[in-house]
Amino acid sequence: MPHVEHVPNVKRVYLIGICGTAMASLAGMLQERGYTVGGSDEHVYPPMSTYLERLRIPVLEGYTKEHLETFRPDLVIVGNAAARTNVEAAATVELDLPYTSMPEAIYQLFINGKHSIVIAGTHGKTTTTSLMAWILEAAGRDPSMVVGGIPANFNQNFKLGHGADFVIEGDEYNTAFFDKGAKFLHYHANTLLVNNIEFDHADIFPDLGAILDMFRRAVVQIAPDDVILGNGDDENVASLRKDSRARWLTFGWDRTHDVFATDPEFAPDTTSFTAWWEGKEWFRFTTTLSGRHNVLNALADVAIARLRGLEAVEIQKGLESFRGIKRRMEVRGVERGVIVIDDFAHHPTAIATTLNGARKRYPGQRMWALFEPRSISSSRKEFERGYIDAFHEADRVIIGPIFHLERYKTRYGLDKMMSVPTILGKLNGDGIQAEQIDDFDAIADRIASEAQPDDVVLVMSSGAFGDVHEKILARLREDG
Question: The domain 12-100 is classified under which CATH number: 3.40.190.10, 2.40.30.170, 3.40.50.2300, 3.40.50.720?
Answer without folding.
Answer: 3.40.50.720
